[in-house]
Amino acid sequence: MITYNRAGARPSLMEFVSAAKLWRVWLHMGLQDVKSRFRSSMLGPAWILINLGAVITAIGVIYGRLFHQPMNEFLPFLTLGIVIWTFISSSLVDGCSAFVVAEGYIKQFAFPKIIYLYRAIVPYTVVFFVGLVVFFIAMALYQRHVGWGALWAVPCFLLFLTINFFHLVIVAHIGVRFRDLPHLLGSLIQIAFYLTPVIFTVAMLKDRGLAFVYMFNPLYYLIEILRYPLLNSEAPPAEVIYVALGYCVVAGLVATYVVRKMSQRIVYVL
User: Fold this and answer.
1) Which of 172, 187, 192, 235 is the most exposed place for a label (fewest CB within 10 A)?
2) Which phi and psi (to 5°) does residue 146 adopt?
3) What are phi and psi of 6, to 5 degrees?
4) Residue 55 — very low, low, confident or very high, per pLDDT cuts 50/70/90?
5) 149 neighbors 61 (Cβ within 8 angstroms)
6) Interhelix angle 71-92/218-232, nearest 10 degrees
7) Model confidence over 118-176: pLDDT tens digits?
8) Is the pLDDT of residue 7 over 60?
């Protein structure tokens, strides 16, 4: 039997496990969130694929020529960069409202509050996998081979997903108390976008003596942990793995601290 803590109680590790066992609940809620974005639309969630494909094609053609990059290499690189960045930015910015938008559920049902964090990450994951479809289409159009080494992306995605879940845990708890947090993080993420190799390559930075821009940018390693195996069909470089693992540990510790300090107050602040 699964037991639930009181709405205002501090969650334990078992509550995360209990919430995970309720996967039918939070998965259904998350998928409904995706569908609700396209209510009364003729194409429905297919707009995600259409919008993403149009944006990547437009940006790819312009910046590919602007940066004098071969399109067969640049377009798949750009596609993955934008898709992965969208996931990261969503977990940090949209994640701030995970508990806020679930206020009615939290006050009326005895489910563990953690299910609303699992629910929040479902739409980001759906958009990510739709983006992978665009990536594989781009690879096929340019006859780029995807080898078995690309399967390294599976464990790398699990690490990536864990890190972004920690992001979500942190900002969701803080966002209940500080409602300006989404606006602050939105501005910071916009700045970070222009400082992270998403639409420009690492080689461009090295050639201009700007290697420090990516070397000391943790977001670069979060992108590269997934982009490298999918583009090159081999394991990411050791330094990318080590930094990503270290970042995961730090994010997990911060998430644990935030939950212990703020979880009990969520119901009363909402």
Assistant:
1) 187
2) -115, 110
3) -60, 155
4) confident
5) no
6) 140
7) 999 999 999 899 889 889 988 998 888 888 999 999 999 999 999 999 999 999 999 99
8) no
* 40 — pLDDT class (breaks 50, 70, 90): low
149 vs 133: CA distance, rounded Å: 18
**Scanning the structure block, which residue is given the tokens 């050639």?**
207
10 close to 260: Cβ distance less than 8 angstroms: yes
The CB density around residue 126, as the number of other CB atoms within 10 Å, is 16
Residue 35 identity (one-letter amino acid): K
> What distance in Å separates the CA atoms of residue 32 and residue 120, rounded to the nearest whole number?
11
C-alpha to C-alpha distance for 36 and 39, rounded to whole angstroms: 5
pLDDT above 70 covers a percentage of the chain that reads: 92
Q: Which pLDDT score is estimated for 37?
A: 76
- Which residues does 78 contact at the CB level (< 8 Å), separation at least 6? 56, 59, 60, 63, 64, 198, 199
Using the structure block, give the residue that is written with the tokens 């960045």.
Answer: 85
Alpha-carbon distances of 239 from 7, 85, 118, 222, 258, rounded to whole Å: 42, 20, 30, 12, 28
Domain boundaries, the chain: 19-269
Dist CA 182 CA 241 (whole Å): 29
User: Quick one: how far is CA 199 from the chain centroid?
Assistant: 17
Q: Is the pLDDT of residue 41 over 50?
A: yes
Residue 257 token pair: 């601290």
Q: Compute the distance between CA of residue 211 and CA of residue 220 in angstroms, rounded to an integer.
A: 12
Count how many Cα atoms sit within 13 Å of the Cα of residue 185 in the half-sphere of its side chain: 22
